[in-house]
Structures are given as structure tokens and as C-alpha cells.
Specification:
Elements lengths: L1 H14 L8 H11 L18 H7 L1 H21 L9 H10 L1 H35 L1 H14 L4 H12 L3 H24 L4 H9 L4 H38 L5 H10 L3 H28 L7 H9 L1
Helix pairs in contact: 5-13, 6-7, 6-9, 6-11, 6-12, 8-9, 8-11, 9-11, 10-11, 11-12, 11-13, 11-14, 12-13
Length: 312
């Protein structure tokens, strides 16, 4: 009798396509793989639900616990050891300084963010364009690529004073310093990505009379996107570094200027507050690029689907 009931249940599952008994997240993973796509990351682990802040906090609870413990130890050491505030302020003093300096920080932060964003945009646009030219024309690679590599051996802190002497202490030299600092990883990663496409697929597309533009758009770009985003994420942190170097060399506003002037005046709490804001800018910028990377549909495709799409 039990055997007959089990047989009826199996028959019912087969009639419904064999997947009705699966959890929705597992069913999505099966359908994705069957369709030639990778299963969504975390589909089984999180049962198809969006990852909440609480779940992320659980993943990083050890790191959070260590951070809180360090803050408490820092606070206790400063208070019990009688360390002067101009040498090392307590975390509570830094928090109080942050609240008191909100208006001052806002103005300087806007200046630095403007330098970072514009310089980053220049670096990305010029880096991607040059990468396309290098991949497309061997002559460009032989002439330009050695100079790109050589430019990275020169410390940016040595280039910054020259740009400021030539162009003044305005916004333009700071944007150029940010762009020069962030340019290299974008270019190098884009070149590597555009050359990552399998030659068999390239020959296949050319055998059906695909133009170079079609090969580039439908094959090379999908292959290159993971490499490009790796360069873009690295460039976010370098952009912040470039902006601070530029402001150290010559500026009357910005977080770099605020750090320098506060150091000269022994306002160490304000230095820490400025550093915290810089870290927040870098983390948010990196997170934004990572979010855009995750949102793109190409992450759900494998190489086996790129060529059929191009041939369609």
C-alpha cells in the first residue's frame, strides 16, 4: 500500500516536470544551469531571498567583535594611561569632534569627492579607450605600452608638485593627479580582458563573416567585463589616494588640506575624523562599483552562450 502511494507521488512529480517538489531557490538554480547560465550566487544558501543587513552582520560578526574590542581597549588605555589628547585622543573624543565639525567636514568633503569623481571618470574613459586601441592596433601597443608601464615607476608624489607649478593650485591639476594615479589598473586590466576571448570563438565568428566590430561587441567585451570591473574597483581606492596626495602638495580646501593643517596645529582628533571620512568615501565608492558589477546580467552568462547570442 505504501509502495503504491510512493509510486503515485513520483508519477505526479514527473507530470509536473520533475521540479515541483524543489524549494523555489533550488528550482531557480536547476533552471539556470539547464539554460546554460550559472546559478545565482547564494541561491541555495539564502533560499532565494535578498541578503539582509542582519545576515551580512552575522557573516562579519567576528570582525565587528574585534573592532569593538579594539575601541574599548583604546579608550581604556588613553584614560587609564593619561595619554594627552594632542598625542592620541580617545575614541569618545574623536566622536565628539566629529559631531562638532560636521559643517566644516561637509565643505571639505565635497571638494575632495569632486576631485575623486572627475579624476576617476577621466581615468576610466582614457584607460578604456587606450586599451581598445592597444588591442586593435599592435603599433599602438609597441609605441605606447612601454611608456604606460614606465609612468608607474615614477612616484605620484613627485609628479604632483610639477603639475601644480605648471597649472596652478586650482582644481585641474588635482583632477589630473587623480586620473594619473587611477589610470594604470583600468588600462592593464582592460587589455588583459579584451584579449581573454578564446581564439576558437574568434575564428568561429569570423568564419560566418562577422565584422571586427561584431567580434568586439559580442565576444571580446563580454569576456573582458570581469577584468574591467577588477580594474575599476582597484581604481576607486587609488582615486582617493591620488586626491589626498594632490591636496597635500598644494590646496586651500579638501580633506587632505584639513589633515595637513590639523597636524600642524596638533588637532589630532580632527585628523582622525578626516581619516574616518576618507575611509568611508573609499569604502562607499568601492561598494558602489561592486554593486554595479553584481547588477549586470553578463554575470549570469557563460562563454557557451556568448557565441550563440552573437550568431543569432
Amino acid at each position: 500500500m505504501r509502495r503504491g502511494a510512493r509510486a503515485r507521488r513520483r508519477a505526479a512529480v514527473r507530470r509536473r516536470g520533475g521540479r515541483a517538489g524543489l524549494h523555489p531557490a533550488r528550482r531557480a538554480a536547476v533552471v539556470a544551469v539547464a539554460g546554460g547560465r550559472r546559478a545565482p550566487a547564494g541561491a541555495v544558501r539564502y533560499h532565494g531571498a535578498a541578503v539582509t543587513l542582519l545576515e551580512r552582520a552575522r557573516d562579519y560578526r567576528a570582525a565587528i567583535a574585534v573592532f569593538v574590542a579594539l575601541l574599548l581597549a583604546w579608550e581604556a588605555a588613553v584614560r587609564l594611561g593619561g595619554v594627552p589628547a594632542f598625542v592620541l585622543p580617545a575614541p569618545s573624543a574623536i566622536a565628539a569632534k566629529f559631531v562638532a565639525d560636521v559643517g566644516l567636514l561637509a565643505g571639505h568633503t565635497l571638494v575632495t569627492v569632486q576631485e575623486i569623481l572627475v579624476g576617476y571618470a577621466v581615468a576610466v574613459a582614457s584607460g578604456l579607450l587606450l586599451a581598445v586601441l592597444i588591442v586593435r592596433f599592435r603599433t599602438v601597443e609597441r609605441v605606447v605600452y612601454p611608456y604606460i608601464v614606465a609612468s608607474q615607476t615614477v612616484p605620484k608624489i613627485a609628479i604632483a608638485p610639477l603639475l601644480i607649478i605648471w597649472m596652478g593650485a586650482g582644481l585641474l591639476p588635482k583632477i589630473l593627479i587623480v586620473a594619473v594615479t587611477a589610470f594604470f589598473p583600468v588600462t592593464v586590466n582592460a587589455v588583459a580582458g579584451l584579449r581573454a576571448a578564446e581564439e576558437n570563438y574568434v575564428h568561429l565568428l569570423r568564419s560566418v563573416a562577422a565584422t571586427e566590430a561584431q567580434v568586439f561587441l559580442h565576444l571580446r567585451v563580454p569576456y573582458a567585463l570581469p577584468y574591467i570591473f577588477a580594474g575599476l574597483k582597484l581604481a576607486t581606492t587609488l582615486s582617493v589616494l591620488g586626491a589626498i596626495v594632490a591636496e597635500f602638495m598644494g590646496a586651500s580646501e579638501g580633506l587632505g588640506y584639513l589633515i595637513l593643517s590639523s597636524t600642524f596645529n596638533f588637532e589630532v582628533a580632527r585628523v582622525f575624523v578626516s581619516l574616518i571620512v576618507l575611509v568611508a568615501i573609499g569604502v562607499l565608492f568601492f561598494g558602489l562599483v561592486s554593486f554595479l558589477e553584481r547588477r549586470l546580467s553578463w554575470k549570469q552568462e557563460t562563454a557557451s552562450r556568448v557565441v550563440p547570442t552573437a550568431l543569432a
